[in-house]
Structure to design on (215 residues):
């Protein structure tokens, strides 16, 4: 369980707050708008109305006590930058800030953000990859040209075991799990038989996966 300070309760911030709470983290949520704070209050540990560009207000939160500070402000470029900078100046351990453009991302990193998230770009990548071929069912970008794909079993592998398909040696990718009848099976082995309606979760470089599954 982590102590997390979440600043900015627009649509993105609200979804983050609710998911963090589902994962049993302690979340302090902050926004300048009362209606946003009231909306998320039932789902978080605590929620406050306040101006995150105020050094006095941020100081009162004890930012050093949080494991992660997330700046989810997406509709005010200046406020996002000022909040990120102030958090770092006040000794925040880890600052993760939402970027809304490439330029915004660069400024955030220069002004104290340890990491950035760029939801629009990440969703665009997922959408482009997910719908680039009929046999791709999901996609997780791991950075540095590596990813996890959920893909249909190639017809040449149907009726063969993982060992017989010899995927790792021939294609330099790893089968992590398979989904059968809607259920994810992580307990696969070299003797696992591949069936027509299975889907596979495979890990590898984008180049090797695309070459192997022809997309």
């Amino acid at each position: 369980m982590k102590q997390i300070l979440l600043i900015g309760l627009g649509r993105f911030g609200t979804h983050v707050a609710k998911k963090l709470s589902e994962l049993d983290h302690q979340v302090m949520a902050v926004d300048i708008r009362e209606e946003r704070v009231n909306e998320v209050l039932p789902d978080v540990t605590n929620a406050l109305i306040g101006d995150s560009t105020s050094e006095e207000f941020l100081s009162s939160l004890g930012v050093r006590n949080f494991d992660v500070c997330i700046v989810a402000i997406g509709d005010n470029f200046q406020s996002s930058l000022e909040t990120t900078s102030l958090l770092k100046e006040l000794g925040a351990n880890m600052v993760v800030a939402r970027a809304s453009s490439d330029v915004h991302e660069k400024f955030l990193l220069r002004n104290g953000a340890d990491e950035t998230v760029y939801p629009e770009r990440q969703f665009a990548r997922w959408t482009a990859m997910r719908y680039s071929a009929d046999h791709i069912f999901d996609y997780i970008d791991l950075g540095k040209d590596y990813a996890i794909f959920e893909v249909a079993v190639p017809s040449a592998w149907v009726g063969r075991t993982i060992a017989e398909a010899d995927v790792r040696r021939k294609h330099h990718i790893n089968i992590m799990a398979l989904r059968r009848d809607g259920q994810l099976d992580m307990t696969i082995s070299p003797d696992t038989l591949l069936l027509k309606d299975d889907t596979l979760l495979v890990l590898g470089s984008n180049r090797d996966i695309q070459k192997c599954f022809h997309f």
Remarks:
- The chain has two domains: 3-117, 122-213.
- The mean pLDDT is 91.
- The first strand starts at residue 3 and ends at 7.
- Residues 89 and 112 are 8 Å apart (CA to CA).
